[in-house]
Amino acid sequence: MKDVQRRNFLKTSVGLAAVTIAPGMLLFKVAHGESDDNSKVRWGMLIDTSGCTNGCRECIDACNKENGLSGGLAPTDSQWIRKIEIKDVSTGHEFGLPMMCQHCAEPPCVDVCPTGASFKRHDGIVLVDKHRCIGCRYCMMACPYKARSFVHEPLHNQNPDVPRGKGTVESCTMCVHRVDEGKQPACAEACPNKSILFGNLHDPNSEIAKKIRAVASTQVRADLNLNTGVRYQGI
Questions:
Q1: Which of 25, 30, 140, 162 has the smallest number of CB atoms closer than 10 Å to its CB?
Q2: Cα 170 → chain centroid
């Protein structure tokens, strides 16, 4: 009960700040609005693991290049997509599982953030506001997918469309800067087997919605009832 009251207090406080500070904060209020099931747009991905071959790094390399990441060359380096290699011991079948922020409808990272830095847009994309992040890393502990990274070192030669900063937490943004321009996320565009399908989950006529109705798909840790925006086929 105390946790619920605390979250409600924080949400109320942030809302009041948005109204009181007025001029520039209106944008903050709009950007941090919570999505709901009635929203016309909820961006998501369907990843077909049957086409995700072991050893392929095209999605990872594209993500690193697009977002100015070093590619996890050191333990403290950020990596927004990591490849999990899975083998079915009963059949010997092997496949890859790209794991990134799952853009949950009920994101634990947002619930635990004390400043409102972790937020979910109206279209379901979960982001981190670098100006509000204090580096407490509560969200990293709360994420069941281990999808968030902490920036330990100063950053140089950044992509101006992807602001990052030392002392803040970051994760897959679903290439929001590209999505807002009507483009595909870099990983989906780069996949040689077209195994990453991106689209509007709430549009029944979209390719992704049609395919999810036609094939069996799975949410990783569906038992947590987070309603993830990333779904997997073939696991």
A1: 30
A2: 9
pLDDT band (50, 70, 90) for residue 159: confident
Q: Can you tell me the mean pLDDT for 141-170?
A: 92
Do 43 and 119 fall within a single domain? Answer: yes
The full 3-state SS of 44-72, as one line of letters, equals EEEEEHHHCCCCCCHHHHHHHHHHCCCCC
| Greatest extent of the chain over all pairs of C-alpha atoms, in Å | 61
Could you list the residue range(s) of the whole structural domain that residue 27 is in? 1-31
Identify the CATH number of the domain in which residue 118 sits. 3.30.70.20
- Assess whether 83 and 187 both reside in one domain: yes
Query: So what's the pLDDT on residue 88?
Result: 78
One-letter identity of residue 106: E
Of 210, 188, 230, the C-alpha closest to 51 is 188
Contact (Cβ atoms closer than 8 angstroms) between residue 81 and residue 96:
no
Could you give the CA distance from residue 164 to residue 174 in angstroms, rounded to a whole number? 15
Same domain (yes/no): 7, 116: no
Report the candidate in 115, 112, 122 with the shortest Cα–Cα distance to residue 176: 122
- Whether residue 78 sits in one domain with residue 3: no
Cα(229)–Cα(146) distance, rounded to whole angstroms?
A: 16
Number of domains in the chain: 2
| Paired residues of 149 in beta bridges | 170
Whether 114 and 2 share a structural domain? no
- The whole-model pTM stands at 0.82
* Start-to-end C-alpha separation, the chain: 37
Return the residue matching tokens 């392929």: 56
